[in-house]
Amino acid sequence: MVDSMAIHEYTARDIQVLEGLEPVRRRPGMYIGSTDERGLHHLVYEIVDNSIDEAMAGSASRVDVTIFSDGRVQVSDNGRGIPVDVHEQAGVSGLELVMTRLHAGGKFGGGGYKVSGGLHGVGASVVNALSDEMWVEVRRDGKVYRQEYRRGTPLGPVAVVGTVGPEITGTATQWLADRSIFSAIEYDFETLAERFREIAYLVKNVWIRFEDQRHDREISFYFEGGIVSFVRNAARERGPIHRTVASIERTINDVQVEAALQYTDGYSTLELSFANCINTGDGGTHLTGFRSALTRALNDYARKQKALKDEDANLTGEDVREGMVAVISVKLPEPQFEGQTKAKLGNAEVKGIVETAVADGLTQFLEEHPQEARRIVEKCLTAARAREAARRARELVIRKGALESSTLPGKLADCTERDPSNAEIYIVEGDSAGGSAKQGRDRRFQAILPLRGKILNVEKARPEKMLAHEEIRALITALGVGFGDSVDLARLRYHRVIIMTDADVDGAHIRTLLLTFFFRYMPQIIENGHLHIAQPPLYRAQNGKEAVYLFSDKEKDTYLAGHKSAAATLQRYKGLGEMNPDQLWTTTMDPQHRTMLCVTIADATAADQLFTRLMGDEVEPRRKFIQSHAAQVRNLDV
Questions:
Q1: Rounded-to-integer distance, Cα 97 and Cα 77, Å
Q2: How does pLDDT run across 564-617, given as a tens digit for each residue?
Q3: Is 502 a catalytic residue?
Q4: Does residue 504 have an active-site annotation?
Q5: Which CATH code fits 227-394?
Q6: What does 92-109 look like in DSSP terms, one character per residue?
Q7: 54 is known as an active-site residue
Q8: Fold that domain 420-536+597-632 belongs to in CATH
Q9: What is the mean pLDDT of residues 252-281?
Q10: Would residue 70 show up in a list of annotated catalytic residues for this protein?
């Protein structure tokens, strides 16, 4: 019987109303995605995006970003400056309104901006709410206005703190992220620099200067070529098959459409989509329209040139995108993003606009550049033939039972758990390590898949060759999601996929080959946080009866420094097979004590270029990379 006295009476008094910016501090993930490094970087993006909106409005030509040694960040521009006059309805200055109220800004169709990335009017106020300290200075009307804040709350009214010439305008914003909210205040220079590089490509003739005073680094970006330069730079190391970049620029119904593409002799595709200079990593209607136009225009041209006969099947989207590097950018008055992090564009009308613009522009390019057009069509036809060969190879291995979900590879030691969210699989290097892992694991939820030798470098191989590789077939079958365009995460048999290789050069190479495979053929597993890298110990220190596992050279040095007088012996683990099953469980596989790295993609463009450079066919870019980073090597077998 339920105790009626224990039931709390639910009345209107129990309904809590969060005022001002308190909702942001209570649920920061709803506004910036997370409170780790990605969320920390998102604060910078929000403020920089506001300055870029000024540049897109034709009012700013320069943006300066500075990270100070104490973790403060400052963004300044030479735009019009945030309005400081009193807002009639709110009764406070425009500056205070923008910085302290959610959904307040000049980007809701009031005439301040034709296009902008700050759709929701929450960017600056969210940064303010999640900052321990913040100040904003506005230069306009010959004066310098300033307001300071503490965790989103103004410390006083907007005040005049100086004068400037009437021609000097702009906004400077400085903040210190709140350490009680963010797990660590550590900005990554390369991640931020790559984002600023993208912006400079997307907005022609804007100068972006980025200074990091923590490490005495500085870089500036300025591109007159726009996204054509973007594509040319991204395709350079992949081996372009035609010199001229195909570029399209059209405006339809106040929507500006820009697209540029170039084909390479590689097999992977790089498509980058942007809406109002926001990187839409999950695509959206603009990317859908681009793909439809690309497929239609190339099929029409190929049939017109008799490269495709009447009896031939059309080229598929997969055929026309193989080896392509493309950037699609749209600028529109009222973008509809999915979520505050703006990863996907949802405007339904944009699909048709982009499809029309790209189809017309690409058809014109093909007609005006017959030599480039011929090479592009030949590339697509080759991809179609390879696709057909891969289909036959897939059907062959399925008929043999190699990819059937009911026929798991014989080398797989499966677990008994049938709920994928509670199951994990270790991809282990070699039979010896596989044997230790099988004996040391908890067979209830841990599966072991040992791989023999180094798998195929898929960066240099077509899908049909990849499917012929026994170890890769075993991996695809064990995971159960398919590969390439057919990946279905709902069929993933283990929600934690863990790469566990030896702590030597060969182990690092095998790990890199596996990461290349996942990045190229199963990126969804990475994007959804399913891929991890195990961290086995490097050393075992024995001091009498005491045994300590050390996971890095730094830990080893610290341990030895504290045991100078003791007769400690040190064992260096080079192979997982050297560890007893109980040692492997204790140090690397026990969920209560293990350490694992979660593999993420912070920047798809940078990751794509890195895999191309290190794993692709071109030797020269790889040689230059090795030479330029040789001094940074810390672990090298001799």
A1: 20
A2: 666 678 888 877 877 889 989 988 999 998 888 899 887 666 677 777 777 776
A3: yes
A4: yes
A5: 3.30.230.10
A6: SBHHHHHHHSTT-SS-SS
A7: no
A8: Rossmann fold (3.40.50)
A9: 91
A10: no
